[in-house]
Amino acid sequence: MKLAIFGATGRVGSEIVRLALQDGHEVSALIRTPTKLKNFGHLTILQGNVFNEEDIENTVNGADVVISALGTDRTTTLSEGIPHIISTMKKHHIKRIVTIGTAGILDSRTEPGKFRFQSSESKQKLTFAAEEHAKVYKMLAESNVDWTIVCPTYLPDGEAIGKYRIEKNKLPLNGEKITVGDTAKFAYEECFKRQFLYTRVGLAY
User: Fold this and answer.
1) Is 45 in contact with 37 (CB distance < 8 Å)?
2) Residue 67 contacts by C-beta under 8 Å, 6 or more apart in sequence?
3) Cα–Cα distance, 51 to 176 (Å, whole number)
4) DSSP letters along 108-163, please?
5) Minimal CA–CA distance to 155: which of 38, 10, 56, 24?
6) Which candidate, 172, 19, 156, places its Cα nearest to that of 164?
7) Nearest Cα to 116, choosing from 131, 132, 105, 124?
């Protein structure tokens, strides 16, 4: 299969690229600085950014699945880029997208009707990143693409262990962390399993 990946140089994105190439899939990655990604296997690196629709077109053309591991980095890149990705997917009749979100946009257990980042459950004082991810969730929910948002909690570096808890739209009870490796592996596998369509998925040990 062919995967189009945005955010391929980040911690989770680069691990998804590695897993896909390891399994023999074709990967097309749009990145700003090509030297940040090691080229091997069936990898096509395109230089550009998600503000340019032509760059997105070149990246998703012929893809079976789109993956966004875009971060916020204190910018609006995420919320400004995702609409371009969705519209280009529709243009090319690509239905499947898996994105990496944050546990902040899962539903609060203690305050129904609120996101976790809006409730007392969240320990984060700064909410900019969660607000960006919430905008993306609303955009995807209103689109007609087959979306899944993977929502890890605290995300330390580390390899995949393979044993973790999953909950639809909520963070598993008392979940405190999940490694980059397990987050990437779950997101990568969900591209094909399609077990959590139209769902935010909480991940934690």
Assistant:
1) yes
2) 3, 4, 5, 6, 13, 16, 97, 98, 99, 187, 188, 191
3) 34
4) PSSSTTSBGGGSTT---S--HHHHHHHHHHHHHHHSSSEEEEEEESS-------S-
5) 10
6) 172
7) 105
Identify the pLDDT of residue 111. 95
3-state SS record for 28-90: EEEECCHHHCCCCCCEEEEECCCCCHHHHHHHHCCCCEEEECCCCCCCCHHHHHHHHHHHHHH
Instruction: Assess contact for 151 and 103: CB atoms under 8 A.
Output: yes
Sequential pLDDT tens for the chain (205 residues): 999 999 999 999 999 999 999 999 999 999 998 888 877 779 999 999 999 999 999 999 999 999 999 999 889 999 999 999 999 999 999 999 999 999 999 999 999 999 999 999 987 788 999 999 999 999 999 999 999 999 999 999 999 999 999 999 999 999 999 999 999 999 999 999 999 999 999 999 9
Residue burial 42-74, b: 16+ Cβ < 10 Å; e: rest: ebebeeeebeeeebbebbbeebebbbbbbbbee
